[in-house]
Amino acid sequence: MLFNSFVFLFVFLPLVVVAYFAIPAHRARLVLLVLASYVFYAYAKWWFALLMAASTLVGYAGGRALERTRRKAVLAATVASLLALLGAFKYAAFVGGNLTSFVGVITAQGFPGLHGFLNGIVLPIGISFYTFEGISYAVDVYRGDLEAERNPLRYAFFISFFPHLIAGPIVRYGFLRPQLLRRHPFDADRVRAGLLLFALGLAKKTVVADGFATWVNRYLDDPSSLHAFEAWAAVVGFGFQIYFDFSAYSDMALGLAQIFGIELPWNFNRPYRASSPIEFWRRWHVTLSTWLRDYLYIPLGGNRKGERRRDANLLATMGLGGLWHGASLNFVVWGLYQGVLLLTTHHLRKRALRAPPAVAVAVTFVVVMFGWVFFRLHSAAAIGHAVAAMFLLHGLGQFPGHLTLLIVAAIAYTMVVPEEWTWDVRSFGFARVAAVGAVLAVGVASIYTSHPFIYFRF
Amino acid sequence: MARLVVFLGTALVLLAALATLNWWIDPFGEFWKPSAVQEARAARPQCLVSHELIGGEYLPFKLDVFRSRPTRTFVTGSSRVLKIGSWPGERTFANLGMPVISPEIVLKELRALPARPETLYLGVEAFWLNPHFRGFDVSPGLERHARYLLSRSAFDESVRIVRRAPYVLLHRWRKERVGSSCVVGRSRPALAWRLDGSRVWSFELDPHTYHPAVDPFTTDLRNLRTGIYDDWTELSPARVRTLERVLALAHARGWHVVGFTPPDGERYLRFFAASPVIGPRWRAFGRLMPKLFGRYGYRWLDFRDARSIPCRQSDFVDGGYHTDAACSMRMRRRLDAAARRQLTLVALGDSIPAARPRECHCRAGFVALFARALRRPVAVRNLAVPGANSADVLRLLRKRGGVHADTALVMVGHNDTPWLRPDGSLRRNLAAILDLVHAPDVRVANFYDDGHGDPAVVAEYARAICQVARSHGARCADVYHAFTPRLLAADHVHPNAEGQRLIARLLYALPSARRK
User: Fold this and answer.
1) Minimal CA–CA distance to B379: which of B296, B295, B258?
2) What pLDDT is stored for residue B62 in this prediction?
3) HEC states along B313-347?
4) Which residue of chain A has the CA closest to B10?
5) How many CB atoms sit inside 10 A of residue A341's CB?
6) How far apart are CA A82 and CA A159, in angstroms?
7) Burial of B284 (0-12, 13-18, 19+ CB in 10 A)
8) Residues from chain B contacting residue A428 (CB–CB below 8 Å)
């Protein structure tokens, strides 16, 4: 089920919210939310729910076992089991497809049956997110940072809670558990604040992000026809599209969780204001970048084993982070590109090379935006066309006025206005509340032409 | 709490206003408006209905067209059949075609029609058999309606319409004159519909409006317009099955069917001939269709090459896809001629007309032999049921509400044991059966003496059958007197192959009778 769908907005959400506050018992409320989350998830395909239940079972049992015996083998088995599900559904087609193609080239024998089977694998939405949550839980229990959860209901809630199920934020159990122990009585101010944030997120997605998508797709669907102006505008436009799209989802998730009295970690903080790639990753998809730092980069040795090892660790972490986004080489390239940006920044800092803040922000903006080429375009040929166009090899071309106007407006807005989740919506008076109500109406009215969230496929 | 109410209230009031405006204006025609069509129908002379008011509601509109006329002949198919219309003064023709129609929609459409006798011209498109082709969604659900009513793009279009024609705020449509035609619409009929369901281009209404021929023909032949031939690597078995279900339905209802495929322009023909991917499928489609239609005794007219109609390249209004009215009516003439040559034949009775090979040791029973002897395209429906007596056949007919055909063959009574009550049920049942057979030519065969019954009773039975048949205006073949024991099969009950041939000959030799 999508947040920007009518069945969610007009059926699922009202029913769940009313039922939640109608039920007085805290435990029963948790049961309701877990059941609702499974319905939410199974709406796309019924067997997705079985998959999530399996992942939940593995994580819960692994946690209990790790609490009894903190053995590496148990941790490895738990993590491997969780990753096996992810690997089977997300990466089998990628690895198998590349292997069969390779063998096909060597032996001149095709494997159409195997190709067909691999291509027929359906990616369960959100699997990357709840797999990472399960892994973080198992590792935290193993490290002794967290007690294993004995109550399966609470663990099931942690994995399945529908606001963050599909596209994050990636929640750590230590963050969520204390909130699950408390009862959350109806609080009109809190519910209103949650709804306001959700409304702002919905409008940000259906009006702003999809407004960008219309123009960006027009250009990037055929990169071979691009010239310099169009290529840069399209790539920068995509940078804003994906930011507004994903941050809108995060706002909606935070708002929805707030309705039920749950606070989720924030994910974005105006990343294009960053003055370095390092700062960019402290502002962009923060729950993923901190996850990668805590569960991949640091266990690999982090920066404790010398510069070369740090650089290698950075590249490995970001390359795998790229691969997490999708089973495709372009995402790996994007991750490695981000890794190169990070280690370059470290080396520049070591040499005490620092630019004035405005220049640093501008340079960071440009290099980050350039990286989106590898994220948005999937084939080497398409990437080649776009990059060649960006470097003037296809001429300047026509100036894309509409898209440029949108980009200028987006830059001005994101540089001046703070991230929506930081707004003190509880203090909004009647006029501003009514204005957000109107924004919600516009957001709902724009659903008809809305695109799916970009991060759903990850 | 008050601010929560203000927040939700503001959103709901605005959305309600949006939905109301979109519903009233209905800019993309998502809601069926029967009163607009009624208004066009009530006008003298009758008006056309602007496409603005029909929008995507093709199915209810076409069903309304069918029901509002004494339809005896109708055509269905894609947008390429929409110029096939009525002859001047003809009220019994309806065009039920729809743009982006698929076999699934055709089946749905035909199921919604009453089972009265009809002649169907079924325009089959080659791209229907492309598994990647998707037809128009004719059954929008509640969610799609809600999405539409609450959509900003519909609102934008509604506002444009209100600006252009402010009267729509009070009257959703009005009668307007476009060129020399009366059109029920609201100021901009890009297309219009006649009340027989055929389509009128805007340039036909007003020569000053857009004509597709003014644009150079730039369609990408590799994608062939909207990608309807994209990735066509096999003839979809599911679609072929659906087409078979369409034909089976028509057959079960006793309809005449003539299948055809609309013509393609020269550029398309050249492309089909040369394309290594689409070409073989296109040719396979051409081979499959006559077989598929022939299986039900229906004719297939292959119009893919426009010259076979005959039409010229200049008869396409858009360079090679849609034919103009003149070419479409030439197609109609060919279809009418094919339909006139085609008969429907229904057979009723027991195991003798059913003619199972293991009983008669024959390849074809007398029904098939009779049909063959007609030397014309015949759609045969053999409704005979082994073991059935006259009461069973009557029950079958009552359940079906009777049968319609050009010719009906009836041979029943062999299982009406005991035979010792010759004035009993058989006469009554046979009379009732014949009342339920609606055909201009009804032929009844009495039955032969297989040696199992009292010869006097059998003779009486044979006489009684012919008496009842004649009293109902049917012809009766006297099998009783012509049949000899050597014509019995090994089971000494059923006729053998020679016996079946004899019955066919006797029935065929009868002069045809016009009744009802």
Assistant:
1) B296
2) 95
3) HHHECCCCCCECHHHHHHHHHHHHHHHHCCEEEEE
4) A437
5) 22
6) 12
7) middle
8) 3
H-helix or E-strand spanning residue A140: helix A127-143
User: What is d(CA A296, CA A307) in angstroms, rounded to the nearest whole number?
Assistant: 17
User: Reduced to 3 DSSP states, what percent helix, strand and coil does chain A have, rounded to the nearest 5?
Assistant: 75, 0, 25
Choose, out of A222, A448, A451, the residue to mutate when testing the contact with B (most B CBs < 10 Å): A448
Position with higher pLDDT, B373 vs A119: B373
Instruction: Please name every residue paired with B408 in a beta bridge, in sequence order, or none if there are none.
Output: B346, B442
Enumerate the H helices of A69-126 as residue ranges.
72-86, 92-107, 112-119
Neighbour-count burial of B356, counting CB atoms closer than 10 A to its CB (0-12 exposed, 13-18 middle, 19+ buried): middle
Contact indicator for A458, A167 with CB cutoff of 8 Å: yes
Length of chain B: 516
- Residue B412's H or E segment, with its range, is none
DSSP string, A309-370: HHHHHHHHHHHHHHHHH-SSHHHHHHHHHHHHHHHHHHHHHHTT----HHHHHHHHHHHHHH
Candidates A196, A434, A446; nearest CB to B152: A446
Is residue B293 a contact partner of residue B257, using CB atoms and an 8 Å limit?
yes
Chain centre distance of CA B313: 29
Q: CA of A177: how far to CAs of A70, A78, A180, in Å?
A: 21, 20, 5
Residue B25 burial (CB count, 10 A): 22
Number of CB atoms found within 10 A of residue A105's CB: 9
Percentage of residues of chain B with pLDDT beyond 90: 40
What is the pLDDT of chain B when averaged over all its residues?
A: 87
Picking from B7, B143, B151, the nearest residue to A445 by CB comes out as B151
Question: Would residue A185 be called left, alpha or beta, if left means φ above 0 and alpha means ψ between -120 and 50 degrees?
Answer: beta
The length of chain A in residues reads: 458
| Chain position carrying tokens 């989106």 | A372
- Annotated catalytic residue, options A325, A346, A385, A394: A325
Spatial CA neighbour of B84 closest among B94, B99, B69: B94
The full DSSP string for B154-207 is: HHHHHHHHHHH-GGGGT-S-EEEEETTEEEEESS--SEEE-TTS-EEEHHHH-T
**Contact with chain B for residue A202, Cβ under 8 A:** no
Interface of B with A (CB under 8 A): 1-4, 6-11, 14-15, 18, 143, 146-148, 150-155
**In chain A, what residues touch B147 (CB-CB under 8 Å)?**
6, 447-448
Q: Kindly report, residue by residue over B292-337, the tens digit of the pLDDT.
A: 998 887 889 999 988 888 888 888 888 788 899 999 999 999 999 8
Tokens 């738990």 locate to A78
CA distances from A3 to A8, A40, A456 (A): 6, 10, 11
Our answer to whether residue A325 is catalytic in this structure is: yes
Q: What does each C-alpha distance from A193 to A184, A201, A264, A423, A426 come to in angstroms?
A: 15, 12, 14, 10, 5
How many Å apart are CA B134 and CA B127, to the nearest integer? 10
Is residue B410 a contact partner of residue B434, using CB atoms and an 8 Å limit?
Answer: yes
Q: What is the Cα–Cα distance from B177 to A335, expressed in whole angstroms?
A: 64
> From CA A295, how far away is CA A324, in angstroms rounded?
14
Is the pLDDT reported for residue B514 higher than 50?
no
Q: What angle do CA B412, B416, B420 make, to 5 degrees?
A: 130
Q: Can you tell me the mean pLDDT for A140-157?
A: 92
Across B156-185, b (16+ Cβ under 10 Å) vs e yields ebbeebbeebeebeeeebbebebeebbbbb
Q: What is the pLDDT of residues B96-145, one digit of tens each?
A: 999 989 999 999 999 999 877 789 999 999 999 999 888 888 777 888 88
